[in-house]
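>> received
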Amino acid sequence: MIGPLLGILCGIILGVILQRGRVCFNSAFRDLYLVKDNFMFKAGLLAIALTAIGFLAMAQFGLIKLAPSVLNWGGVIVGGLLFGMGIVLAGGCASGMSYRIGEGNTTSIVAGLVYGLSAWASGSGALKPLKAWAANLSVTMQNPDPAIYNTGEKVSIGPTLSSILNMNPWVVTLVFAAIIFAYLFLTKTTKREGANMQWWVIGIALTLVNMLTYYLSATFAKRQYGLGITAGWTNILQTWTLSQNGTETAPSLNFAGGIVVGVILGALVAALVKGEFKWRTPREGKYYAYAVLGGIMAGFGANFAAGCNIGHFLTGSSLLSVASLVASIFFILGNWIMSRIMFGAPDRDIKA
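>> returned
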């Protein structure tokens, strides 16, 4: 029982950060393309750079074992594109949908539930053979260092930048972080009116909660990974629906499911404290249709890619996972493609 409770705790912290910082990576990617707004994108990159150093340090001290995702070329490319396109239609990324539910956003409620159902369905039923076929394209890390990587008879992990380059992980991680820092601090940052937190504060906060989550999940839930959203939505829906059907072996809430529950609760509390909770409905009913279609695309994409914007972009990229880095590139490309379709060409006259 301690696993789900710790997951909820981590989720609450994340939910408060997301709600107060207005953190949504759909808008981070979209705004970077449409209006050259790099405020939220920089927050995400700072979190990745700092967390990459933090994760490796924790592994070196034996607190966690690094578990980069297996590289499935078909999954990260096709799934990544569909996820990136879907979150534009849905009006929020996996984490954005989740925290906005806590604010009373009815479109996000629809998008989040459909997203979870789509991710669950994509791993079973008629679509299961498709995912099994794609698994044939998977690439794993050869001879990982058991001192810092999660190894075992039934454990598979994917290649990282350091394993591909055959270099010391510290060298690659520090160079990786230095490149990000150069972009962050040597380029102009867009001003965001009404922002509750500075971009660097958001980045540091996301780093701390991700490191805490990884440590607690590895120590108490035997789950070697940091923050993630998609697996949590699947767990919640499986727990609810299968238990209602009287299944003898119905799953129970786990650490990942606890994170999603916590995000919604944390955002709800933060919104209530600041007087920002309000049942919100869209101006036109068509946005519910967009939420359904976007939720289906994003849910399938996240399942096929084996991760979402939190699991791949924020956490996996911090592990220097090749799968997560490639998935993140295609998340962004998919986001930009759908942004172009829905909103037209970017405004080149806007200066960052």
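>> The longest helix spans residues 39-60.
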